[in-house]
Model the fold of this input.
Amino acid sequence: MNKSLKTFLTTCLVIVISLLMTINIRVYHTPDINITTSDSLNVDLLRELSWLEAALAEDADLNMQAIYPEGYVFMNALYGLSWCNVLSKLQSNDSLRTKGLAEIQKAYEKINSETGRSNFDENLPLPYGAFYSGWSNYLLGRKLLVEDSSVRNSTEVTQFISRCDSIASTLERQTYPESYYGQVWPADAMLCAASLALHDKLFEPKYAPAMAKWIDNVKSLVDKNGLIPHSIYRDSPADDARGSSQSLMLIFLNEIDPEFARSQYEIYEKLFIDTRFGLTGIREYPAGTFGLGDIDSGPVILQMGGAATIVGLQTTALFGNRETNRRINGTLEALGVPVENQTHRWYLFGTLPMADAFIAWSHSSQPPLLEPATFFRFHLYSLLSIGVCVALIWWLWKKSRPKSNLVVGW
Done:
């Protein structure tokens, strides 16, 4: 083997060793927490939101719309909800509250615009469909919730109440309204229902009977595992539950019916939480089944879902599974390639701002993560892999024994 090829192969192996060593350090990253008199500020999260603010100012939401059918709305909704989560925990710090309220307002105005509505059909039974109605109305409800009642915009209050009435009447007729003509996803209806639960926190409660009836209908349309299906066709489950939608729906179902949400989570925990090489994540398809990635799931590697795992970070925290939550956090920090400076923090080299929006949203809902999990199995696999790389480098450069010229003549 010539020297140039040996050098190239050695360089590749050294890079692999360096990556493995870096990942093994990154799994133990915990957020930088700035504890003040009355607040514990997640500095990592604030840097993530600062990066998203800059990305949105450069039309990252429009760029994501070119990749995802709902990219524009999704990105602004997640960004706004992240700020809502930050402000809901804030006790003082008026400057941060003012900043957060301004960013939430900006995100909502983008969604509640012609650009925000342009990809959705106004003439559906639920105007603009379940996806748009759910995310836009839920963000508006959360915005009103973190605002002081004395400064709420009366037009927005009227708009929220009117939309809630429209959603309630639609859910009474149809368990899962369409998001697009002939296309139904339960996760979108879950946002619609969650906005009704928000209404009853903000104003005089009136939707509890309607929600109880709707939950009964939801329970009658579960898949073979007893979970809410990923999609619906002609009032029957079309696709069984998947990790990406389950991780998302459980978050909002917990606001609507905590008892039912807990029973769904217990099934989800058994079928979707899994490990690969000592790292924990969320499967896209239930244990024992196989599937490929699509626009909903993001990348699916060894059956572990990208979107499912990112959102699952929030889901596991919400349902009190602290150990799994810490392990998923380690996985994301190890494999998400985070980069940061004094003001910004971003993942995947900033190539996919949608992922950053989901990660920030999950981080914004977590309690302070002060202690990392342990990753003994992952370290063992890594050590074995590094050993193989070192052995290959040694084999490439070992000196061959010289051939003997001795000839025995008998």
